[in-house]
Amino acid sequence: MVKIVGVGSPPLPKARPVARSGASGRFRVALDSGVEETRDTHSVEGVSIAPSLLAIQESLEAAERDLRVRKRAEAILDELGVLQLGLLAGRLPEARIAALLRLAREAEQAADPRLAAIAEEVEVRAAVELARLERALRPDR
């Protein structure tokens, strides 16, 4: 236990002399009992966590990308539903067509192969509907 005597830095412990060895790759540690312990530093190899961190980062990026792709596919399906209702009602909201066109242009590949296949099917459906609308709205039929 250290006694507090006032403001200032605490007293430093006294250094114990350590015998130096001429052998490279070894160091000696003086123990309290005065016995020196020799350890070999060549047997310790560095451990790199960089590959693990990169793998975690890639999986997080893939998960974020999959989430964006899923949300985009759901938004396209929502816009296709609104478009269908508009066609049945006899009026096509131009803002919805523009939104569908914008979503169709924002293609991104999902990391999950099953999600990528589903998203591609949704994108094809949107492209077909946009092509139909373009053809139907052209004045030179």
Gross morphology is rod-shaped
Question: In angstroms, what separates the terminal alpha carbons?
Answer: 96 Å
Unreliable stretches covering 5 or more consecutive residues: none
Helix-strand category: mainly alpha
The number of strands is: 2
Count of DSSP H/I helices: 3
Output the helix-strand order: EEHHH
Strand order of the largest sheet: 1-2
Helix fraction, binned, reads 40-55%
Identify the notable features of this structure and list them briefly.
2 strands; mainly alpha; 3 helices; 141 residues; two-stranded antiparallel sheet; 55% helix
Gist of the model:
With 141 residues, the chain is mainly alpha-helical. The chain contains 3 helices and 2 strands. It has a domain at 61-137.
Could you give the topology of this structure?
Elements: E1 26-30, E2 36-40, H1 50-89, H2 94-105, H3 113-137
Helix pairs in contact: 1-2, 1-3, 2-3
Task: Explain the overall architecture.
The chain is mainly α. It has a domain at 61-137. The chain has helices at residues 50-89, 94-105, 113-137; strands at 26-30, 36-40. Strands 1-2 form a two-stranded antiparallel ribbon. A hairpin with a 5-residue loop joins strand 1 and strand 2. Helix 1 packs parallel to helix 3 (113-137) and helix 2 (94-105) packs across helix 3 (113-137). The longest helix is centred in the middle third of the chain and has 40 residues, at 50-89. The N and C termini lie far apart (96 Å).
